[in-house]
Amino acid sequence: MHCPFCRHPDSRVVDSRTADDGSSIRRRRQCPSCGRRFTTLETASLSVVKRSGVTEPFSRDKIVSGVRKACQGRPVSEDDLALLAQKVEETLRQQGSAEIDAYEIGLAILGPLRELDEVAYLRFASVYQAFDSLEDFESAITSLRAEHAERAQAKQDRGQDPTDGSGPAE
């Protein structure tokens, strides 16, 4: 690491700490030449390989802007979108690969978006999965309904009222 003050080609790490919930490391460094201290922030790079073969750095902002379109007019806040983008990034980083295919990012978005807002999920999935018939929509809606029925049955089995999350039925 070059010193930003005197451009000396080496520096000594004085202190290291995790930052941003463990996704990066903050290092305090000192230049052996001029003695001045400076801070660096190190993160593991994550690149996206697009369909065209072009590689670009991963961006949470692109996830947020893409999902924001699907959530237009829905009761979804900016905080919800930021949390979704964080979940997607964490899922992708857990795969352990430095390069992620753009298609995999879309797949990683579908799950958290389905939990966040089902209408937005259908909008996003219809574009992302290239729905081209009513049958595609019907299939997705049938899947959502089956999931709702399973959850309601599970709540009923636990003695909870399936129409709310308040606890045991009276």
Strand numbers in spatial order across the main sheet: 1-2-3
Q: What is the terminal separation in angstroms?
A: 66 Å
Number of helices: 5
Helical percentage: 40-55%
Uncertain parts: 166-170
Mean pLDDT: 87
Class based on secondary structure composition and strand pairing: alpha+beta
What percentage of the residues does DSSP assign to strands (E)?
15-25%
- The global form is elongated
Q: Would you report the number of β strands?
A: 6
Order of helices and strands: EEEEEHHEHHH
Instruction: Round the Cα radius of gyration to an integer and report it.
Output: 23 Å
Assembly annotation: single chain
The largest pleated sheet is described as:
3 strands, antiparallel
Give the tally of structural domains.
Answer: 2
Region (Disordered): 148-170
Function: Negatively regulates transcription of bacterial ribonucleotide reductase nrd genes and operons by binding to NrdR-boxes.
Family: Belongs to the NrdR family.
Pfam families: ATP-cone (PF03477), Zn_ribbon_NrdR (PF22811)
Structure, briefly:
The chain is of the alpha+beta class and 170 residues long. The protein is built from five helices and six strands, in the order E-E-E-E-E-H-H-E-H-H-H. It folds into two domains: 12-43, no CATH class; 47-144.
